[in-house]
Structure prediction request, 126 residues.
Amino acid sequence: MKPILLKISFIFLFLSLMGAGCEKEKSDYDPNSIIGKWKWVYTLGGFAGTTYPKDGHTETVEFTEDSMFIARDNGEITFETDFNISGDTLKYHQGTDLEYKIKISGDTLALTFIEWGLNPFYKRIN
Prediction:
């Protein structure tokens, strides 16, 4: 009887310790922190490695409170659609459904394009 009780106790202890290591990742991300205008600084990834805006061009994106995503080149709207955020994932449609992981640190917005691994970086302008 003792060997069975000892085995059961060991298994229970082992499972308890394993479960303690499986704590769900907590996110303190506030989806509203993306609201505002952002200036594109550069993008990492893809064939070129790192890409920057063309000389003389200012490319911005804006996320509005009414869930509109607006892209501009030198102030002129080049693309506009609605967006939604689920957890830390931004989704919008531009000919196809696009999904980005969002990371905001201070005044820097980093988006990771889930399908291709492109990482555009933006600075908040308001």
User: Anything to note?
Assistant: The CA atoms of residues 67 and 88 lie 15 Å apart. The helical segments are 2-20.
